[in-house]
Amino acid sequence: MTVLDSDAARKSQPHTAEDRLAWLALALTPGLGPKRILDAMKVLEAPGQVFALSLTALEALRFPASAAQFIFDGKARKAAEEEGAAVTAQGGTVLSYGCPDYPQRLREIYDPPPVLWVRGDVSLLSRPSIAVVGTRHPSP
User: Fold this and answer.
1) Within a domain: residue 140?
2) Residue 116 pairs with which residues in a beta bridge?
3) What is the per-residue pLDDT across 88-126, written as a single tens digit (0 to 9) for each?
């Protein structure tokens, strides 16, 4: 495995459908958060490589045993394929951190989301915007 030292190195590689599927599979894997996913992707030569790793190699990426097993058993890939099909059927797009269209400003935060579910014009994500942030469980 080769370490990718920068986003520039990642951008120079083509981002395939298999790569996007791998990002989505990791995002849907229970027990993996954004930071752990991004750290693992820095180690892999290509995101799609995650599907071919042994159970030991997955655990070496600092994935919890249950998450590594979920990926190794093919459950993460199956979940990603189903989610990708559902998003496409609804006119949406899955945009992964590895995509050139992923918003640069999001890349700069501590734990950027590994994938974004987008409906509409993806290019608008690079324009100035406003976000409303709140809790899912507001107090009265």
Assistant:
1) no
2) 95
3) 999 999 999 989 999 998 898 888 999 999 999 998 888
